[in-house]
Structures are given as structure tokens and as C-alpha cells.
């Protein structure tokens, strides 16, 4: 059976796995983005606190994904839970680091001007600092998403959702007629999803970042 014949015969399952893969990465990136920005807001004003946040999230990223999921299985069980926890933790570093850099890069004169017209600390954060820090934050989100696309495939080790199941089934049946087709279909699916997500982020950047800031 050729690759395209295999895809045609398994298109329903492949579409289901693709949707689950995209959904898992998207939801985990939302959680990681919220947590990462909160951590950055809490630490960017202090050199040691910012360094601690960056170092801690970087240390998490050094843990091999297979080991991370294996360590999570006794704690949260199999399935979706270890996938969500692992992907969220892995997605933190690019967001935290870029958010801290972005917030520290805001022109102090602009913050002082906002303070001078009576803006509260919260208003300055949400109306001045975070909007100006958005470009590097979005870059961090893009980088993290590309990482998680590949890491999410390992979730199949813990019965997680996504295209990793197709890859693992192919690896487990190496030598059979469709083993290579299974691995290839899962791999190409992840590559296509990564490209689509990145294109979506480019569009979001064009819609949300003023032209002057992009320049």
C-alpha cells in the first residue's frame, strides 16, 4: 500500500488525531501563556527574581520529555492529564523569558508619562507596558508552540491524544507493511500543523501589533 492509499484508508482516524494534537497544543499554550506572563509581571522588576524565573523554567526544559511524562504518570495517571502538565511546563520558558525582556524594554519615559496623567499601577501595566511588550511575548509564544508540536507526540507514551499515537504504532510494528506509512503520516501531520499555527501567529501579529512597533 502506498502512502497516499494509506492516508485515504485511514483519513478519519488521522483527522481525529490531528484535531486532538492541535487542540492539546493550543490549550496548553493558552495556559502556559497566562502563567508565563503572570510570572514575568511578578518578577521583571527584580534582577534576581527574573533570573530565578528564567533559570527555573529553563531547568524544566532540560528534562527529557519521555522522562517527564514517565515521572508524571504515577502522580496524575495516564491520558490527557500528564500531556497537559508536561506541555504546559515545557511551554513556559520562551514565554517567561520574552515577557521579561519585553517588559524591561518598555521606555521608562512612557511609563512615567502614564503615571503623570494619573494612571494606576494596574492601568499602566495593562494599557502601556503589556501592549508594548506584546511583540516579544508573541515571539515567545511562537517558539514555544513549535516546540510543543514535537513534544506532544511523546504524549502517546502515556496514552495521550494526538498524532504521536500514529508514530508510536508505526515504531511498534516496524517491519510490517504499513509501519513506515504510519510514522510518516504522523510526522507530516505534525509538520503541517506547526506551519499552520505559525502562519496564524504571523496573522495575529499583523492584526495586533501597530505598524510603527513592527518597524
From TrEMBL:
Cellular compartments annotated: Cell membrane; Membrane
Spans traversing the lipid bilayer: 24-44, 51-73, 143-163, 183-204
Coarse class of the protein's main subcellular location: membrane
Alphabetized UniProt keyword annotations: Membrane, Transmembrane, Transmembrane helix, Transport
Alphabetized Pfam families for the sequence: BPD_transp_1 (PF00528)
InterPro entries linked: ABC_transp_perm/SBD, MetI-like, MetI-like_sf
Membrane topology field: Multi-pass membrane protein
The ABC transmembrane type-1 domain, residue ranges: 18-201
Record carries keyword Magnesium: no
Record family assignment: Belongs to the binding-protein-dependent transport system permease family.
Full protein name: ABC transporter permease
Organism: Streptomyces yunnanensis
